[in-house]
Design a protein that fits this description.
Blueprint lengths: L2 H28 L7 H8 L4 H31 L5 H23 L5 H23 L2
Helix pairs in contact: 1-3, 1-5, 3-4, 4-5
């Protein structure tokens, strides 16, 4: 197992843990437990649209969790069998694009900080390692 494959394995395990966390948070919100941030949501969106914003947040959390979990599972598989790196390369590219969009949105919202920069690190390194593994297999 190359160093790139080892790194993909570590990041994939973190993706699985994060994906499960996002899914749990999203499902808890879907079942009515997620009222913790309601005041802030009403403050930002207004009372009339807070319900729609809350459901949108829940759906996004579940989608992100599923995507992260799926990416982690495929990454773990590819870390042990380098011939299966193709889907990981594709998903890492999609993750990096989403992270770049997140950074642009945070700059527009004037909420740019260390969190936005850190959101780029994992997908960028995963893409770089996947490209290395892909190159080694050619």
């Amino acid at each position: 197992m190359s160093n790139s494959q080892k790194f993909i394995n570590v990041v994939s395990i973190l993706n699985i843990i994060g994906g499960i966390a996002y899914l749990v948070i999203g499902l808890l919100g879907a079942f009515g437990v997620g009222v913790v941030g309601t005041e802030r949501l009403v403050e930002h969106t207004g009372e009339q649209t807070a319900g729609v914003a809350a459901w949108l947040f829940i759906v996004i959390m579940i989608l992100v969790g599923g995507f992260s979990l799926f990416t982690g599972i495929l990454g773990t598989r590819a870390a042990h069998d380098a011939s299966k790196i193709g889907p990981v390369f594709t998903l890492a590219t999609i993750s990096l694009i989403i992270s770049v969009v997140n950074v642009v949105v945070s700059i527009i919202d004037k909420d740019f900080g260390l969190r936005a920069i850190c959101s780029l690190v994992g997908p960028a390194l995963m893409l770089w390692c996947a490209a290395n593994v892909k190159k080694q297999n050619q």
